[in-house]
Each structure stands twice: as C-alpha cells, then as structure tokens.
Recover the amino acids of this structure.
C-alpha cells in the first residue's frame, strides 16, 4: 500500500526522505525500483509506501491518510542512501564563499565534477570539504602559494628558520629563494640548490606541496598544471578521499571533530575560526531547497 508521493528537491537524499516519512530507505528504494540509492534526480517523483503498523491486530481497518503531512526533517546519520540529488548551485557556492567574486563561475563546474568523482556526495561531506577549500584557496582566489613576504612577516611565520628580521632579509620579497629554503629536504624535495622547494610549492585548492605529494597526485612532471581549475579541484577532492575524510564527515561535526579534519588538511590550527565559520555557512547553504 502507498500513502502519497514526494518530488525530490535539490540537496535531498533517499535516506533523508525515508526518514522524513517514517519508512526505511531500502523499502522506499524497493517501492520505486531504485537499484542505486545514491543516484537521485532533482524532480524525481517517488511513491511513498505505507509505514509498517506497529500493532496491526489492534485496528486492522484503520484507514491510511492519502496525503500525509510529513514532520520537519531531522538529521539522518551517515550511511547508505545519503548521497544528495543535484550539484551545488552557484547561489549555494556564493553563500559559502561570499568573497569569491567571478571565481565562482570559474570553479563551479570543476568542483561539482571533482566532488562527484570522489564521492563527496552528501550535504555533510560537501559542507566540510567546501569550507576547507574556502580557507585553503582564499575563497577560490588563489590556487598557488604566495611566497612574497616581508622580513618582518618571515620572522613571524618561520621563527626557527629566521630567528631575526636580519636573518630573513635575503628572502624578503624573493619567492623563489624562499620556497627553496623553507621546503628544502622535506616532502620528497631535494636540497635548497635543487630548486624543488619553489618548483613544488603549494598549488591547487588544497595547496598540494612537495615533490612526493605532486608525484602522488600525478603532477610531478607538470607541476604548473595543478593551478588550473579542474586539476586544482580534482587534486583537492582526491586528497580528501585518500585521507579518509569522507568517512570522518558523514555526519554534522562538532567543533572538536571539525578541527581534527582541519589538522589533516593544514597540519595545524591555522585559520581555525575562519574554517569553522565557513563550515557553518556551508551547512546552512546546502540545506534542501524547499522552493523546488
């Protein structure tokens, strides 16, 4: 028996719709001939099966309401059938990254393609991923690390390497020399004279850095390509997937959990508050659009 229909809105998942109507996602999938529960289309019309009666013998003739009024959705745990319908829209991305300007149009298709490829396919995963991208790329405005620092700033950022401003003067506003110095003999790079530090400086939407990481991403022989929109987005999403961050962002995160994800991305607490604020914007922006 069925009790009504539901038209899939952008940002909804099969699990979320089933939870809203009080039925299991697999029962909903079976009722609609859905073989892959993580593939929903915006505008898809679903038949809603009747809820199982918890005490069928007590009232066997009780009629079912033909058009149920579902309660407001509550959070659905991560798991099967949680992939959402529809790509992230321009308006949603702009709400998450309000300072991105024209870069929204440049990166929208690339980001959606990368998120689909690497299964960043739920509102919760997308919110965490895009929040990190927002901070790592200065809201899509930089896909290449800026190594143009004053001596004073170098002393502040790298006090061990530059214990005084005088020690930093030779590298002040000298991006190539600075990259070769601070990234020498680490992350798979050669020594300072090899030029690897500057050659494999941070690029992409999550700042892939170092020869070994470029090699893992498939760009050791063409490092400049990581600054292009599609490869920048792909490398970020691949890093996310390879480091198990889809599993860690299956549900909405508290501040401590989110900070842990940030440390995986950045190695520390740099921009912690900014990342958290971007995450809150993303969670709000990616709620299902009730106007559809």
């Amino acid at each position: 028996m069925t009790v009504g229909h539901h038209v899939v809105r952008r940002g909804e998942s099969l699990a979320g719709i089933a939870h809203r109507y009080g039925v299991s996602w697999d029962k909903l999938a079976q009722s609609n001939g859905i073989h892959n529960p993580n593939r929903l289309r915006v505008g898809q019309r679903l038949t809603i099966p009747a809820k199982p009666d918890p005490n069928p013998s007590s009232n066997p003739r009780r009629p079912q309401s033909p058009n149920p009024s579902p309660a407001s959705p509550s959070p659905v745990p991560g798991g099967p059938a949680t992939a959402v319908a529809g790509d992230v829209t321009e308006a949603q991305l702009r709400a998450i990254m309000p300072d991105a300007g024209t870069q929204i149009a440049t990166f929208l298709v690339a980001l959606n393609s990368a998120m689909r490829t690497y299964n960043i396919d739920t509102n919760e995963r997308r919110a965490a991923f895009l929040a990190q991208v927002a901070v790592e790329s200065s809201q899509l405005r930089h896909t290449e690390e800026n190594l143009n620092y004053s001596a004073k700033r170098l002393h502040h950022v790298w006090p061990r390497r530059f214990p005084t401003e005088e020690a930093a003067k030779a590298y002040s506003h000298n991006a190539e020399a600075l990259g070769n110095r601070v990234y020498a003999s680490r992350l798979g790079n050669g020594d300072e004279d090899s030029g690897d530090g500057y050659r494999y400086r941070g690029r992409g939407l999550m700042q892939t850095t170092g020869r070994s990481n470029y090699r893992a991403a498939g760009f050791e022989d063409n490092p400049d390509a990581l600054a292009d929109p599609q490869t920048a987005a792909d490398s970020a999403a691949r890093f996310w997937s390879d480091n198990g961050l889809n599993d860690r962002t299956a549900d909405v995160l508290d501040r401590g959990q989110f900070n842990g994800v940030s440390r995986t991305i950045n190695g520390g607490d740099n921009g912690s508050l900014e990342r958290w604020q971007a995450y809150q914007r993303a969670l709000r922006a990616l709620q299902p659009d009730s106007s559809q």
About this structure: The longest strand covers residues 2-7. The CA atoms of residues 202 and 209 lie 4 Å apart. The longest helix spans residues 103-117.
